[in-house]
Write a structure and sequence with these properties.
The chain is α/β, with parallel strands linked by helices. Helices cover 46% and strands 13% of the residues. The radius of gyration is 28 Å and the shape is globular.
Length: 730
């Protein structure tokens, strides 16, 4: 049936029906029920099958012409089928899902009821290479605050830095080095396993701070003997490049939420969750079965370890709780170092007997671990932008025998169904416009990496993701900005030229409205890509957390004031003073009493009405450790209730409100030149065992949980009474 012969109501009936089913009816279905998931799955793929039947038999098979015209049509179909394959696997995964939080509750109660000497021993391993002090300090201190009686913290320093050795000795953490850096992170961990003996080992990347209850919430799952690894999500306390560069920290979840909040719980339902390197606990006995070491044939040793254990009957369990928080990539340079490593490692598994194509796996597990996402992501995103440009500039069409009516009748219903289904399976974390921008950004670097690894799977250097100061030195990604700007210019100019009859390359005027709509969407996406490639200015060296609690202030003259903390970091705080109080002047020294921390020297650096900004003077001290514990070992993350329309609206609003800064050429990742090379310890195996910590931070935080007894706060104002020296010292 030709869509051109349909009435207007018949033409739009499929779109209206799909919209009603997926966006009005489906949200009333309980996503936790298997029948609801199957119903949505079947509905979506019936619509897609209807589209593919039209796409193949009407727009491809009748194609004739020169070899390059036919080749181009078939290549476009190939990319589309690859994308649909990836989407089909994703939908299969979504047919199951788990929520292990109630199990974690039961396991925690059981573990807390046991005598301390009956709890299994755990080695907490923190592999590091070149991360700076401000990153490692938080992770080490947070790890030492774990609420578990039988664990040891080990810092695995492949950078062999004397200052880190000293820091570990001061804090009581174990410190390990080795004679070489063979096999990068995997080799570093394998060396540590020869020096430690815990029944389990937890791994935290250098920038991930475990929450106090991490071990109590994860170790209990190992009561099931088939559990080899327990993985928890990667959660971040800072903005990723897209959030920061588009100014959408409160309007867009971080780029990894879709994976960790929706895909991983679904994979867990198929016993197909996998170790993600950091924030995991592994059973040492399971590792012994596969050689007592992490596999090193791929630079993503975590996925390969999961596959190796899976073949021996051990599965990875996933607990979707934010039990460790870390740094999202702080620049596009850091982002691409991380993603290129992931993509390359995933492709490398295709060439290994332990990979998804090797023996010993069932069909579903092969599909779960086949890297279709990395194969299709960059190619699909790039083709979406390039196809209309090629059509407008050369007249080379990606299809034949397509009318605008057919697009409304077949294509748009399929798009609505696919996006509606994913939004139903993954509410509040999947946003089509943001996903398209992210995929387009990644296509510029991920696609070459994937293609290069397919041709040459080995021989690639392991690159550590830059963290802290090193990551913030990036200015803008020229290799993203200028190609995106060029593609945007080609799209706009091509569209304008095809509105002039004398210059038009599109033979069919009826196709122009479709191409115009497609081009406008691409221009919007490419504009966001350009904006994202411009590195936002980092306002603070330390991330601030929103809090709302009382604070006690003592001025240099001995006057005592009260207020409320609105936000706080390791370097300072924003404090709302009580009404009627004369604010101390800028630069005046103060002391502030922070609950669970104690007294901190501070100074006012800015003031806006009753809200003052304080800068802390907080060198290495017990109070600094307590503030790290307060800020980083108890999750201060907000829930996400965003919907797609609000995210799209916030992104589009930025087109008008955000002035795009001109790029300033700065060497990516440049570091200040030093007068001498950094000091290194000898290239040898050094073992400094953990020491019992004298200070019980949890106990001290409890003691300091309240302000001194003389502080009362019926309302904001001056504080009555006198502070004794004993109270001040506390």
């Amino acid at each position: 049936m030709q869509a051109m012969t349909l009435s207007l109501s018949q033409l739009f009936a499929p779109m209206v029906g799909i919209f009603a089913a997926m966006y009005l009816l489906a949200p009333t279905f309980p996503v936790a029920r298997p029948w609801a998931r199957v119903a949505v799955f079947v509905a979506v793929w019936l619509v897609v099958a209807r589209y593919l039947e039209w796409r193949i038999f009407t727009t491809v098979l009748p194609a004739t012409g020169t070899w390059y015209q036919v080749y181009w049509i078939w290549f476009c179909l190939f990319v589309e089928l690859l994308t649909f394959t990836d989407q089909f696997i994703l939908y299969l995964i979504f047919l199951r899902r788990t929520d292990r939080r109630s199990e974690a509750d039961q396991h925690e109660r059981r573990l807390r009821s046991l005598p301390h000497d009956e709890l299994p021993s755990v080695d907490v391993l923190i592999p590091t290479f070149d991360e700076p002090f401000e990153v490692l300090e938080k992770t080490i201190t947070g790890a030492l605050c774990l609420d578990y009686p039988n664990f040891q913290v080990w810092v695995l320093d492949d950078g062999r830095r004397p200052w880190l050795k000293k820091l570990c000795e001061e804090k009581g953490a174990g410190y390990l080095t080795r004679a070489d850096n063979l096999n990068a992170k995997a080799g570093n961990i394998n060396h540590a396993l020869t020096q430690t003996s815990g029944e389990f080992f937890a791994i935290f990347d250098a920038d991930f701070v475990p929450q106090c209850k991490f071990l109590m919430r994860t170790i209990g799952f190992f009561a099931d003997p088939k559990i080899g690894i327990v993985q928890i999500p990667h959660t971040f306390y800072n903005e990723d490049p897209m959030q920061a560069n588009l100014g959408l920290h409160r309007g867009l979840p971080d780029e990894q939420r879709f994976f960790f909040d929706s895909i991983m719980p679904a994979r867990d339902g198929w016993d197909g969750a996998f170790c993600c390197g950091s924030n995991s606990v592994t059973r040492r006995a399971a590792l012994r079965v596969v050689g007592d070491a992490l596999p090193t044939q791929s630079i993503t040793e975590d996925i390969l370890l999961t596959l190796v254990l899976l073949r021996k009957g051990y599965i990875t369990r996933y607990l979707n709780e934010p039990m460790a928080i870390g740094l999202a990539p702080e620049s596009l340079d850091a982002f691409f170092v991380q993603r290129q490593r992931w993509a390359r490692g995933a492709i490398q598994t295709l060439y290994l007997s332990a990979g998804p194509l090797g023996p010993g796996l069932g069909l579903m597990h092969r599909l779960l671990f086949f890297p279709t996402h990395w194969l299709s992501l960059g190619l699909r995103a790039l083709m979406v932008v390039v196809v209309p440009i090629v059509f407008m500039w050369t007249g080379l069409a990606p299809v034949v025998d397509v009318t605008p009516e057919a697009v409304f009748f077949y294509l748009f219903p399929a798009i609505l169904a696919l996006n509606g289904g994913i939004s139903w399976f993954a509410p509040h974390v999947h946003f089509p416009l943001a996903a398209q921008v992210s995929a387009t950004i990644q296509s510029f670097k991920i696609l070459p990496t994937v293609l290069g690894t397919l041709v040459k799977p080995t021989g690639h250097a392991f690159k550590v993701t830059p963290k802290g100061t090193a990551a913030r030195c990036a200015s803008y990604a020229a290799e993203i900005f200028w190609p995106s700007a060029a593609l945007m210019a080609l799209t706009v100019v091509g569209l304008v030229l095809n509105t002039i009859p004398e210059w038009r390359m599109i033979d069919h005027p009826a196709a122009l409205p479709m191409v115009a709509f497609w081009s406008v969407v691409n221009v919007v996406v490419l504009f966001f890509v350009c904006m994202t490639s411009l590195q936002a200015r980092m306002g603070r060296a330390e991330e601030r957390f929103d809090v709302d609690e009382s604070v006690l202030i003592e001025t240099g003259a001995g006057e005592r004031l009260s207020g409320r903390v609105s936000n706080i970091s390791l370097s300072g705080a924003g404090v709302l003073l009580g009404s009627g109080i004369d604010s101390p002047g800028a630069g005046e020294p103060l002391r502030v009493h922070i609950m669970q921390v104690g007294w901190i020297d501070a100074m006012i650096v800015q003031q806006r009405g009753r809200l003052v900004g304080m800068q802390f003077h907080l060198p290495q001290s017990l109070e600094r450790d307590l503030l790290i514990r307060k800020l980083f070992t108890v999750a201060r993350l907000k829930g996400n209730g965003l919907v797609a329309c609000s995210v799209n609206r916030a992104m589009l609003k930025n087109i008008w409100l955000m002035a795009m800064p001109l790029p300033q050429i700065v060497t990516t990742g440049a570091k200040p030149a030093s007068l001498s090379p950094p000091m290194r310890l000898p290239a040898e195996s050094l073992v400094i065992r953990p020491q019992p910590r004298i200070d019980d931070l949890a106990h001290l935080a409890g003691v300091r949980n309240l302000h001194p007894a003389s502080f009362t706060e019926p309302h904001f104002g001056r504080v009555a009474g006198t502070l004794s020296e004993a109270v001040k010292s506390g």
